[in-house]
Amino acid sequence: MDTSATKRKLIDLDMPVFTILSQQARKEGISLKKYIENLLEAEAEQRRPAVPAGVTDPRILSLVGVAKNAVENEEAESDERLQYILSK
């Protein structure tokens, strides 16, 4: 995931979750912070809408996300919305 801009966020974890994540990070030989960042980035990458490579405007990207998630069961309608937004 491109990390050209980052956002810091303080999060709270229940102790069992913290313990499990710490053990997994230790198994992979990386810090807990880096392990959690990797998990979140991988999850976000799977959910990222398909957008042409040249589109980087955050306003357009947020609109595409709304259009892509508005109608999950009807791919054709979602694709039409995406094409309409990207044509502007």
Structural notes for this entry:
With 88 residues, the chain is mainly α. The protein folds into two domains: 13-47, no CATH class; 51-88, no CATH class. It has four helices and no strands. The chain has helices at residues 15-28, 32-47, 58-70, 75-87. α1 packs across α2 (32-47) and α3 runs antiparallel to α4. The two termini are 26 Å apart. 3% of the residues are buried. The model is unreliable at 69-74 (pLDDT under 50).
Descriptive keywords:
4 helices, elongated, mainly alpha, 64% helix, 88 residues
Short description:
With 88 residues, the chain is mainly α. The protein has helices at residues 15-28, 32-47, 58-70, 75-87.
